[in-house]
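Hello everyone,

My group is preparing for a crystallization screen and wants a predicted model to guide construct design. The compound we'll soak is fe (ii) ion. Before spending weeks at the bench, it would help to have a computed complex in hand. I've included the protein sequence and the ligand's SMILES below. Output in C-alpha coordinate form would be ideal because that's what our pipeline reads.
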Amino acid sequence: MDDELFPRPRAEIAPGAVHVPGWLDLAAQQSLLAACRTWARPPGGLRTVRMPSGGQMSVRMVCLGLHWYPYGYARTVVDGDGSPVKPFPGRLGRMAAQAVRDAYGDERAESVPAPDAYDVALVNYYDRGATMGMHRDSDEKSTAPVVSLSLGDSCVFRFGNTRTRNRPWTDVELRSGDLFVFGGPSRAAFHGVPRTHPGTGPAALGLTGRLNITLRVSGW
Ligand SMILES: O=C(O)CCC(=O)C(=O)O
Ligand SMILES: [Fe+2]
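Reply:
Good plan to model first. Here are the C-alpha coordinates for the complex, ready for your pipeline.
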Protein backbone atom coordinates (compact mmCIF):
# COMPACT_ATOMS: atom_id res chain seq x y z
CA MET A 1 0.00 0.00 0.00
CA ASP A 2 1.19 3.51 -0.81
CA ASP A 3 0.86 4.75 2.76
CA GLU A 4 2.92 1.93 4.23
CA LEU A 5 5.70 3.25 6.47
CA PHE A 6 7.88 0.22 5.70
CA PRO A 7 6.89 -1.19 2.32
CA ARG A 8 6.76 -4.96 2.28
CA PRO A 9 9.28 -6.33 -0.21
CA ARG A 10 8.68 -9.04 -2.82
CA ALA A 11 9.96 -12.29 -1.32
CA GLU A 12 10.81 -15.74 -2.67
CA ILE A 13 9.56 -17.98 0.13
CA ALA A 14 10.84 -21.19 -1.50
CA PRO A 15 12.22 -21.82 -5.01
CA GLY A 16 9.37 -20.86 -7.38
CA ALA A 17 7.12 -19.56 -4.57
CA VAL A 18 6.98 -15.77 -4.67
CA HIS A 19 4.99 -13.28 -2.56
CA VAL A 20 4.34 -9.90 -4.19
CA PRO A 21 2.68 -7.60 -1.61
CA GLY A 22 0.22 -5.01 -2.85
CA TRP A 23 0.09 -6.29 -6.44
CA LEU A 24 -3.51 -5.13 -6.89
CA ASP A 25 -4.27 -1.48 -6.15
CA LEU A 26 -7.55 -0.56 -4.46
CA ALA A 27 -9.39 0.02 -7.75
CA ALA A 28 -8.32 -3.40 -9.05
CA GLN A 29 -9.39 -5.02 -5.76
CA GLN A 30 -12.78 -3.30 -5.97
CA SER A 31 -13.28 -4.45 -9.53
CA LEU A 32 -12.33 -8.04 -8.69
CA LEU A 33 -14.59 -8.03 -5.62
CA ALA A 34 -17.54 -6.80 -7.71
CA ALA A 35 -16.93 -9.67 -10.13
CA CYS A 36 -16.70 -12.18 -7.26
CA ARG A 37 -20.07 -10.99 -5.98
CA THR A 38 -21.58 -11.74 -9.38
CA TRP A 39 -19.91 -15.16 -9.61
CA ALA A 40 -21.12 -16.04 -6.10
CA ARG A 41 -24.77 -15.84 -7.14
CA PRO A 42 -26.75 -18.92 -8.11
CA PRO A 43 -27.02 -20.89 -10.29
CA GLY A 44 -23.64 -22.49 -9.82
CA GLY A 45 -22.81 -19.97 -7.08
CA LEU A 46 -20.98 -20.09 -3.77
CA ARG A 47 -21.32 -23.54 -2.23
CA THR A 48 -20.22 -25.54 0.79
CA VAL A 49 -17.85 -28.33 -0.24
CA ARG A 50 -18.42 -31.75 1.26
CA MET A 51 -15.41 -34.03 1.53
CA PRO A 52 -15.54 -37.77 0.77
CA SER A 53 -14.63 -38.33 4.44
CA GLY A 54 -18.00 -36.85 5.45
CA GLY A 55 -16.71 -33.53 6.74
CA GLN A 56 -17.15 -30.20 5.06
CA MET A 57 -14.76 -27.39 4.24
CA SER A 58 -15.19 -24.21 6.28
CA VAL A 59 -14.52 -22.03 3.24
CA ARG A 60 -17.27 -21.64 0.67
CA MET A 61 -16.28 -21.83 -2.97
CA VAL A 62 -17.32 -20.98 -6.49
CA CYS A 63 -15.42 -22.12 -9.57
CA LEU A 64 -15.04 -20.65 -13.05
CA GLY A 65 -14.02 -22.50 -16.21
CA LEU A 66 -14.09 -25.95 -14.67
CA HIS A 67 -15.74 -27.07 -11.46
CA TRP A 68 -13.41 -28.43 -8.79
CA TYR A 69 -14.79 -31.00 -6.39
CA PRO A 70 -12.90 -33.39 -4.13
CA TYR A 71 -11.01 -34.66 -6.06
CA GLY A 72 -11.27 -33.73 -9.72
CA TYR A 73 -12.69 -31.28 -12.27
CA ALA A 74 -16.06 -31.33 -14.04
CA ARG A 75 -18.02 -29.14 -16.49
CA THR A 76 -21.07 -28.93 -14.23
CA VAL A 77 -21.53 -28.41 -10.49
CA VAL A 78 -21.68 -32.17 -9.93
CA ASP A 79 -21.73 -31.91 -6.15
CA GLY A 80 -24.09 -28.92 -6.02
CA ASP A 81 -27.03 -27.65 -8.06
CA GLY A 82 -25.88 -29.44 -11.23
CA SER A 83 -25.71 -26.27 -13.31
CA PRO A 84 -22.98 -25.63 -15.90
CA VAL A 85 -19.87 -24.04 -14.48
CA LYS A 86 -19.55 -20.32 -15.17
CA PRO A 87 -17.13 -19.33 -17.95
CA PHE A 88 -13.55 -18.38 -17.19
CA PRO A 89 -13.12 -14.71 -18.17
CA GLY A 90 -10.22 -13.99 -20.54
CA ARG A 91 -9.17 -11.07 -18.38
CA LEU A 92 -8.32 -13.45 -15.52
CA GLY A 93 -6.04 -15.41 -17.85
CA ARG A 94 -4.25 -12.23 -18.88
CA MET A 95 -3.93 -11.23 -15.22
CA ALA A 96 -2.49 -14.64 -14.38
CA ALA A 97 0.20 -14.47 -17.08
CA GLN A 98 1.12 -10.94 -15.98
CA ALA A 99 1.22 -12.08 -12.36
CA VAL A 100 3.69 -14.86 -13.17
CA ARG A 101 5.82 -12.42 -15.17
CA ASP A 102 5.87 -9.95 -12.28
CA ALA A 103 6.58 -12.62 -9.67
CA TYR A 104 9.34 -14.39 -11.59
CA GLY A 105 10.94 -11.48 -13.44
CA ASP A 106 12.65 -11.55 -16.79
CA GLU A 107 15.15 -14.24 -15.96
CA ARG A 108 12.37 -16.84 -15.75
CA ALA A 109 10.28 -15.50 -18.66
CA GLU A 110 10.25 -18.99 -20.23
CA SER A 111 8.15 -20.33 -17.35
CA VAL A 112 5.30 -17.87 -18.01
CA PRO A 113 2.34 -19.73 -19.59
CA ALA A 114 0.47 -18.09 -22.49
CA PRO A 115 -2.43 -15.88 -21.30
CA ASP A 116 -4.95 -18.28 -22.85
CA ALA A 117 -3.45 -21.27 -20.98
CA TYR A 118 -5.15 -20.33 -17.70
CA ASP A 119 -8.63 -21.83 -17.71
CA VAL A 120 -9.78 -22.28 -14.09
CA ALA A 121 -10.44 -20.03 -11.10
CA LEU A 122 -11.32 -21.22 -7.62
CA VAL A 123 -12.83 -18.44 -5.53
CA ASN A 124 -12.73 -19.21 -1.81
CA TYR A 125 -14.66 -17.18 0.74
CA TYR A 126 -13.41 -17.22 4.34
CA ASP A 127 -15.98 -16.08 6.84
CA ARG A 128 -14.82 -15.43 10.40
CA GLY A 129 -13.20 -18.62 11.69
CA ALA A 130 -12.83 -20.34 8.31
CA THR A 131 -9.51 -22.07 7.64
CA MET A 132 -7.98 -24.36 5.05
CA GLY A 133 -5.94 -27.40 6.05
CA MET A 134 -2.57 -28.27 4.57
CA HIS A 135 -3.01 -29.71 1.08
CA ARG A 136 -1.46 -29.78 -2.37
CA ASP A 137 -3.15 -28.44 -5.50
CA SER A 138 -2.81 -31.75 -7.28
CA ASP A 139 -5.94 -32.20 -9.40
CA GLU A 140 -4.50 -30.26 -12.35
CA LYS A 141 -2.73 -32.16 -15.12
CA SER A 142 -0.52 -29.15 -15.85
CA THR A 143 2.48 -28.03 -13.82
CA ALA A 144 1.97 -24.33 -14.70
CA PRO A 145 2.31 -22.00 -11.70
CA VAL A 146 -0.74 -21.38 -9.50
CA VAL A 147 -1.56 -17.68 -9.12
CA SER A 148 -3.24 -16.62 -5.86
CA LEU A 149 -4.89 -13.24 -5.25
CA SER A 150 -6.24 -12.14 -1.88
CA LEU A 151 -8.97 -9.64 -0.99
CA GLY A 152 -10.32 -8.43 2.34
CA ASP A 153 -9.07 -9.70 5.70
CA SER A 154 -5.43 -10.63 5.99
CA CYS A 155 -4.53 -14.22 6.84
CA VAL A 156 -1.71 -16.53 7.78
CA PHE A 157 -0.75 -18.43 4.63
CA ARG A 158 1.35 -21.46 5.56
CA PHE A 159 3.70 -22.53 2.80
CA GLY A 160 5.27 -25.90 3.46
CA ASN A 161 7.37 -28.45 1.63
CA THR A 162 6.69 -31.01 -1.09
CA ARG A 163 7.20 -34.12 1.05
CA THR A 164 4.92 -33.88 4.06
CA ARG A 165 2.13 -31.67 5.37
CA ASN A 166 4.29 -30.99 8.43
CA ARG A 167 7.26 -28.70 9.06
CA PRO A 168 9.34 -27.17 7.66
CA TRP A 169 7.00 -24.41 6.58
CA THR A 170 7.02 -20.63 6.36
CA ASP A 171 4.10 -18.51 7.56
CA VAL A 172 3.41 -15.53 5.30
CA GLU A 173 0.89 -12.79 6.01
CA LEU A 174 -1.30 -12.30 2.93
CA ARG A 175 -3.15 -9.00 2.85
CA SER A 176 -5.76 -7.56 0.55
CA GLY A 177 -4.22 -7.03 -2.88
CA ASP A 178 -1.31 -9.44 -2.36
CA LEU A 179 -0.18 -11.88 -5.03
CA PHE A 180 1.37 -15.26 -4.32
CA VAL A 181 2.66 -17.45 -7.16
CA PHE A 182 3.82 -21.02 -6.70
CA GLY A 183 5.27 -23.01 -9.53
CA GLY A 184 8.42 -24.87 -10.54
CA PRO A 185 9.91 -26.83 -7.61
CA SER A 186 7.16 -25.44 -5.33
CA ARG A 187 4.16 -26.34 -7.50
CA ALA A 188 3.44 -29.45 -5.45
CA ALA A 189 4.21 -27.96 -2.03
CA PHE A 190 1.72 -28.38 0.81
CA HIS A 191 0.07 -25.14 1.88
CA GLY A 192 -2.90 -23.95 3.90
CA VAL A 193 -4.54 -21.11 5.80
CA PRO A 194 -4.52 -21.78 9.57
CA ARG A 195 -6.23 -18.48 10.38
CA THR A 196 -7.57 -15.20 9.11
CA HIS A 197 -7.59 -11.89 10.99
CA PRO A 198 -11.20 -10.68 11.01
CA GLY A 199 -11.71 -6.95 10.55
CA THR A 200 -8.30 -6.26 8.99
CA GLY A 201 -9.39 -5.72 5.37
CA PRO A 202 -9.32 -2.20 3.90
CA ALA A 203 -12.44 -0.31 4.97
CA ALA A 204 -12.75 1.17 1.46
CA LEU A 205 -13.20 -2.32 0.01
CA GLY A 206 -16.32 -3.08 2.04
CA LEU A 207 -15.75 -6.82 2.29
CA THR A 208 -16.47 -8.72 5.50
CA GLY A 209 -14.16 -11.74 5.56
CA ARG A 210 -11.57 -12.84 3.06
CA LEU A 211 -11.64 -13.90 -0.58
CA ASN A 212 -8.89 -15.82 -2.27
CA ILE A 213 -8.86 -16.44 -6.00
CA THR A 214 -6.51 -19.06 -7.42
CA LEU A 215 -5.95 -19.09 -11.18
CA ARG A 216 -4.77 -22.37 -12.62
CA VAL A 217 -4.03 -24.23 -15.83
CA SER A 218 -6.12 -27.38 -15.57
CA GLY A 219 -4.54 -29.39 -18.36
CA TRP A 220 -7.96 -31.09 -18.72
O1 LIG B 1 -6.84 -19.04 0.54
C1 LIG B 1 -5.67 -19.18 0.19
O2 LIG B 1 -4.83 -18.29 0.28
C2 LIG B 1 -5.22 -20.53 -0.36
C3 LIG B 1 -6.28 -21.23 -1.15
C4 LIG B 1 -5.84 -22.57 -1.64
O3 LIG B 1 -4.84 -23.10 -1.23
C5 LIG B 1 -6.63 -23.27 -2.65
O4 LIG B 1 -7.66 -22.76 -3.11
O5 LIG B 1 -6.24 -24.38 -3.04
FE1 LIG C 1 -4.32 -24.78 -2.50
